[in-house]
Design brief:
2 strands, 10 helices
Length: about 280
C-alpha cells in the first residue's frame, strides 16, 4: 500500500527530528553555545521536508473526488500540520527553541493518524464557500491554541526549573518569562479572534443550510464554553493582570473544551460508534 509507506516515512521523519532536537536542546545541561545562523537555516530547511510530504498526503486524503474528507484522523493531522507550519514561520522571528522537541513527537503521531482512522465519507455541504471558510478558520484557531497550550506548558516548566536547579540548553536560550508571557497572550488573542470568526461563520453556515442561527449540540456547547474561557482569560489579564498559574490553568482548560468541541465528538462518532 504506497500511501501507508509515505505516511510511515513522514511520521519517521518527524520522529527523527524529535530525537535530534531533544539531544541538541533538552538533553544538554551545560551552558549552551549559540546556534550558528547556518545551522539554524539548515534545521529550518530540513523541517520543510516532512512538512511538504505531510501536506501532499493531507491534500490527497482530505480533498478526494466526492468532497472534503475531514474525519478525526485527517482533522488531527491537518491541525498539527498547520501548528508546525505556524511554529516554523514564527520561529523565524521569535526564539522559542524549546518547542521543537515538544512539537515533533506530536507531529510524528498525528501524521500517521489518517491511516489508523480513515474518513469513511465526505462531509456534507462542502460545496458551500461559507462552510469552506468556516473550516479553514477553525483549523487555524485550533492550531494557534495548540501552540498556546505547548507554550504555556513550556513556561510552567521553565518557572519550575528556575527554582529547582540546572536548566536544559533549550530553556537556557529562551527569552525571559515576562517576554514569553507577552508572546503567549499575543497567540491567545490571535486564536481568540479566529475562534470568534469560527463561531460567527458557523452561525452564517447554519442559517444558509438549516434556516436557523445555530444548532444546539455538544459541538456548539463546547465551542461556546471555550470562547467564554478564553474571553475571561483575556479580560482577567487586562483588568487584573492574570498571569502564571492562572494563565496555565485557563489556557489548558479552554484548549480542552476546544478539543472536545470537534475532535472529541468526531472520535466518538467515527471510532466508538462507527458512524461517519
Amino acid at each position: 500500500m504506497p500511501d501507508f509507506v509515505f505516511y510511515l516515512i513522514t511520521s519517521l521523519m518527524y520522529a527523527a527530528l524529535a530525537v535530534y532536537f531533544w539531544r541538541t536542546r533538552w538533553a544538554v545541561t551545560a551552558p549552551a553555545p549559540a546556534v550558528r545562523t547556518e545551522s539554524r537555516t539548515l534545521e529550518h530547511l530540513v523541517v520543510m521536508v516532512p512538512l511538504i510530504l505531510h501536506a501532499t498526503l493531507l491534500y490527497d486524503a482530505v480533498f478526494a473526488g466526492d468532497g472534503i474528507h475531514l474525519g478525526v484522523g485527517n482533522a488531527l493531522s491537518a491541525i498539527v500540520w498547520l501548528t508546525v507550519v505556524i511554529y516554523w514561520l514564527g520561529n523565524l522571528f521569535y526564539n522559542i527553541e524549546g518547542l521543537q522537541a515538544m512539537m515533533m513527537p506530536v507531529a510524528a503521531v498525528c501524521a500517521f493518524l489518517p491511516v489508523l482512522f480513515p474518513a469513511a465519507r465526505a462531509l456534507p455541504n462542502t460545496e458551500l464557500a461559507v462552510f469552506k471558510a468556516h473550516l479553514l478558520i477553525a483549523m487555524l484557531a485550533y492550531s494557534l491554541f495548540t501552540i498556546a497550550s505547548l507554550h504555556v506548558l513550556l513556561m510552567a516548566l521553565l518557572e519550575r526549573r528556575l527554582h529547582g536547579g540546572e536548566l536544559p540548553a533549550a530553556l537556557q536560550k529562551l527569552p525571559p518569562l515576562l517576554t514569553m508571557e507577552t508572546l503567549l497572550f499575543r497567540i491567545i488573542t490571535a486564536g481568540f479572534v479566529l475562534l470568534t470568526l469560527t463561531l460567527a461563520s458557523g452561525i452564517v453556515f447554519s442559517e444558509e443550510l438549516f434556516g436557523k442561527a445555530m444548532r444546539f449540540n455538544h459541538k456548539t456547547v463546547f465551542g461556546i464554553l471555550s470562547w467564554l474561557i478564553f474571553a475571561a482569560l483575556l479580560g482577567g489579564r487586562q483588568l487584573y493582570g492574570w498571569r502564571g498559574r492562572i494563565a496555565v490553568r485557563w489556557t489548558l482548560t479552554g484548549f480542552l473544551m476546544l478539543v472536545l468541541a470537534y475532535v472529541g465528538s468526531r472520535f466518538v462518532l467515527e471510532v466508538l460508534l462507527g458512524r461517519g
